[in-house]
Amino acid sequence: MANLAYFAVVSKMEMMSNPAVAAVFGDRLFGSWSWVIPVFVALSTFGGVNGVLFTSARLFATGAQEGHMPAFFSLFHIERQTPIPSLFFTCVMSLLMLTTSNVFDLINYFSQTLWLSVGVSVIGMLWLRRAKPNIPRPIKVNIMIPYVFLIAIGCLVIIPAITNPRDTAIGIAIMLSGIPVYFLCVKWKNKPESYHVFSGCILRFMQRLCSCVYVEAAEKMTS
C-alpha cells in the first residue's frame, strides 16, 4: 500500500532522480508535517533491526544444534535463555558490513541474498512437507500462502537480476561462501583430534565468559 501511495503522488522521473522517495512523498502530501515521515521510517528501521536481532542469533544457534555450525553457537545464557555467542557473531558481522562506504551497494547485496535464501528456505519446507510428512510442525498454514509468497519472491529476485546482474552475482557469491563452512562442520566426519580440542577450548571459554550452558535440540532434522 505504501508503494501504491508513492506511485500515486510521486512521478516516475522524481523517483528515478531522488533516492529518498518517502521524503518527496511527505513534502508533497503533508507539507509542514513532512518531518513525521523520516521519524516513522527511523522507528520502522529500529523495529526491523530489533526483529533481526531476535531471529538471526537463534538461527545460528539452531544451525549449531543441527551440527551445521560450530558447537559454541548453541550456548544459551543460564538465566535469560539468550544465545550470547550467536549475538556476538551477529554484532561482529554487522560491524564488518558497516565498513563499506557505499550503503546502496550493501542494501542491494543484502536484499538479493535475503530474498534468494528465503525463497530457497520456503522451497525446502515445501519439499519437507512431502518427503517427511510426520515431522513436528508447530505452525501450519494454508498451502497457497507459500506458493503466493514464492511468486512475490521470484519478482524480487528475477527483476533486479535482469536490471543489475552484477549485484545479483555478488549476492550469490556471498551465499555460496557458506559452502566451505558446511563441508567443514557437517560433511567432514573424520575430523582430527586437534579440531575437537580447539573447538572444546572455545566452547569452555565462551561458557565461562558468557555464563552459558550447552543446549542440544530436542528433536533434530538431520539424522
TrEMBL record:
The portions of this protein that span the membrane are: 32-61, 82-103, 109-129, 141-162, 168-186
Q: Which Pfam families match?
A: AA_permease_2 (PF13520)
What keywords would UniProt list here?
Answer: Membrane, Transmembrane, Transmembrane helix
Membrane topology reported for the UniProt record: Multi-pass membrane protein
Q: Which GO terms describe its molecular function?
A: L-amino acid transmembrane transporter activity
Q: Where in the cell is it found?
A: Membrane
Could you name the Gene Ontology cellular component terms for this entry? membrane
InterPro entries, alphabetized = AA/rel_permease1, AminoAcid_Transporter
PANTHER family in the record, alphabetically? AMINO ACID TRANSPORTER, AMINO ACID TRANSPORTER PROTEIN JHI-21
UniProt protein name: Large neutral amino acids transporter small subunit 2
